[in-house]
């Protein structure tokens, strides 16, 4: 890609992204237990406090510990992102291989299904699913996975067609090697890096979608600590303590940035 | 030409079907008995009883098998009968007719803002690949890209509307209210499209035909205007098409952030208040808007690139 200034810079970005991601994952896994506060416990006497040794990032308008809420929000977001990435990637890749391997009517049916999903902008589909069962995490999860799998499918299908036409694959088939070997030895090394990029961007989309729906009050509902709904709750208190509203925004920004950087920057079309 | 219309027409039908089936499921997923709910809505909670609920059930065919009800639901949509809003009591069509104008205004503002940012930055970066503008715009793009639309909206409100007190926070009374929402969407779109412009310009600058037109004596300026920019425009316009999905999604979210009285805002509200006819109507309108805009992009690409017209004619000939 010629929009990349240089290889070493790109590697630097990638490492930065991976380190950030590692720290986020660690915080999401261990954080809520390390912070000795219940993210839902209110204490109106302690509302809107600045950072202190008791509350590291201060407290919100209901006196809930911000650090505890941000960390359990991180756990929720990253968990949903991982889950929907896996749920989208596995069928996407398998169906992509199937479609290009078998061809014919199988290929046509799968492509038609993918086109049907893409007929609507992804977030609209997620919104419709969320509307069926407002506030439940499974509707969000289903909607996000349903919109994300198409990308894996299309990419895999396109690349596998090219790989399968390769003389090396033909030679392996003539040697009597099974489809399993061909998938492992020829296909995966070829499509692996591209799939990782799609996965990182997909995960970023998932994190953003969860927060966006939470922000417009049709996603995960309060009192569950979720970055998007925290922004909605804290926005009215911008004048008293702008420090509060910035926190969930920063968390979301760092997460998306880390995911984008981990595959070398976020602006390749 | 006809095939482009056909494909988009098919997509429009698909959008209508998906939205309609989803809204049907939504209605069935509501807790309680729909016949009682509708009877209560008609006669008031005090005046209704089991008998009136049965009348409603018979009249609306709620005792029919699910598939038949679904067929009824879809055929109502096919007759462009979107029903009435459960909250406002007004026909959904009337509500949407007002909101669509606002949403189109915002979308146009967003595309304009993104082009005003992406074109100068992208062209400047593309003329000197690896230069200062190129590097700076790349880094800035990576950072801005990581801020989701609504978070960007919050940040812009905090900075421009509240700290600097330059622009109104939300709502719509004058054109000033259009600035912040369009800027939010436009910045988000421009983070990627400025790179597309840059790549397109950089490619065109190194192309052989550019060298040829310079060799035959065309001035640098005319080469730029007549050949480089025209060739660079094609991937840019095609990419605006790719961005349409983001644009529609962005309109939904950004309208909610800025309390913009458009369709996206109405959709989010309808979901929140479980106003199913409104959900169906607004989602359908946004979906169809997506299809129509895509069609416009298809046609624009054909207008810019004579090759696609030629190849289509050859196909028809054989």
Protein topology:
The complex is a heterodimer of chains A (269) and B (318).
Chain A: H1 7-34, H2 66-102, H3 104-118, H4 122-132, H5 137-164, H6 167-174, H7 179-215, H8 227-234, H9 242-261
Chain B: H1 2-29, H2 34-43, H3 50-60, H4 66-78, H5 92-127, H6 132-145, H7 149-163, H8 176-206, H9 208-215, H10 220-257, H11 263-272, H12 276-304, H13 306-317
Helix pairs in contact in B: 1-4, 1-12, 2-3, 5-6, 5-8, 5-10, 5-12, 6-8, 7-8, 7-10, 8-10, 10-11, 10-12, 11-12, 12-13
Task: Summarize the structure in words.
The complex is a heterodimer of chains A (269) and B (318). Chain A is mostly helical. Chain A has a single domain, classed as MetI-like (MetI-like fold, Orthogonal Bundle), CATH 1.10.3720.10. Chain A is built from 9 helices and no strands. Chain B is mainly α. The longest helix of chain B has 38 residues. Chain B is elongated and about 90 Å long. Chain B starts with a helix and ends with a helix. The model of chain B has no long low-confidence stretch (mean pLDDT 78). Chains A and B meet through α4, α7 and α9 of A and α1, α6, α7, α8 and α10 of B.
């Amino acid at each position: 890609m010629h929009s990349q200034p240089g290889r070493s810079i790109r590697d630097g970005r990638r490492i930065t992204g991976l380190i950030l991601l590692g720290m986020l994952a660690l915080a999401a896994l261990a954080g809520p237990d390390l912070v000795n506060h219940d993210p839902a416990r209110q204490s109106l006497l302690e509302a809107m406090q600045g950072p202190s040794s008791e509350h590291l990032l201060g407290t919100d308008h209901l006196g809930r510990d911000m650090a505890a809420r941000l960390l359990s929000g991180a756990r929720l977001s990253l968990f949903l992102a991982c889950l929907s990435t896996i749920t989208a990637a596995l069928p996407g890749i398998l169906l992509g291989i199937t479609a290009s391997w078998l061809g014919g009517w199988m290929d046509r049916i799968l492509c038609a299904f993918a086109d049907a999903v893409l007929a609507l902008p992804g977030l609209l589909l997620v919104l419709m699913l969320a509307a069926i069962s407002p506030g439940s995490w499974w509707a969000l999860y289903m909607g996000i996975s349903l919109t994300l799998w198409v990308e894996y499918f299309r990419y895999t299908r396109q690349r596998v067609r090219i790989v399968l036409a390769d003389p090396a694959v033909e030679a392996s088939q003539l040697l009597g090697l099974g489809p399993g070997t061909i998938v492992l030895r020829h296909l995966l090394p070829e499509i692996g890096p591209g799939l990782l990029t799609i996965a990182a961007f997909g995960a970023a989309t998932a994190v953003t979608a969860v927060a966006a729906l939470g922000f417009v009050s049709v996603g995960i509902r309060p009192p569950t600590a979720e970055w998007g709904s925290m922004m909605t709750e804290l926005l009215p208190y911008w004048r008293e303590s702008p420090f509060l509203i910035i926190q969930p925004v920063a968390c979301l920004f760092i997460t998306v940035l880390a995911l984008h950087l981990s595959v070398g920057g976020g602006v390749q079309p | 030409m006809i095939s482009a219309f056909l494909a988009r027409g098919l997509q429009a039908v698909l959008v209508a079907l998906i939205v309609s089936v989803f809204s049907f499921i939504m209605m069935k997923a509501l807790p309680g008995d729909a016949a009682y709910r509708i009877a209560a809505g008609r006669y008031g909670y005090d005046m209704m009883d089991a008998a009136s609920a049965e009348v409603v059930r018979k009249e609306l065919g709620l005792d029919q098998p699910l598939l038949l009800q679904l067929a009824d639901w879809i055929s109502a949509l096919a007759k462009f009968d979107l029903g009435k809003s459960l909250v406002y009591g007004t026909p959904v069509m009337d509500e949407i007719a007002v909101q669509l104008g606002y949403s189109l205004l915002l979308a146009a503002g967003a595309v304009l803002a993104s082009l005003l940012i992406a074109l100068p930055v992208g062209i400047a970066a593309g003329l000197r690949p690896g230069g200062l503008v190129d590097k700076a715009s790349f880094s800035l793009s990576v950072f801005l890209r990581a801020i989701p639309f609504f978070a960007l909206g919050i940040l812009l409100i905090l900075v421009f509307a509240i700290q600097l007190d330059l622009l109104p926070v939300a709502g719509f009374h004058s054109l000033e209210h259009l600035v912040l929402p369009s800027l939010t969407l436009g910045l988000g779109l421009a983070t990627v499209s400025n790179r597309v412009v840059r790549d397109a310009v950089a490619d065109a600058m190194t192309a052989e035909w550019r060298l040829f037109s310079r060799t035959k004596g065309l001035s640098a300026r005319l080469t730029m205007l007549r050949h480089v920019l025209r060739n660079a425009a094609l991937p840019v316009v095609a990419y605006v098409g790719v961005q349409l999905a983001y644009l529609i999604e962005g309109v939904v979210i950004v309208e909610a952030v800025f309390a913009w009285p458009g369709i996206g805002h109405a959709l989010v509200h309808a979901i929140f208040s479980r106003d199913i006819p409104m959900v169906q109507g607004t989602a359908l309108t946004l979906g169809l808007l997506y299809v129509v805009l895509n069609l416009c992009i298809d046609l624009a690409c054909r207008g810019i690139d004579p090759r696609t017209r030629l190849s289509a004619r050859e196909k028809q000939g054989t």
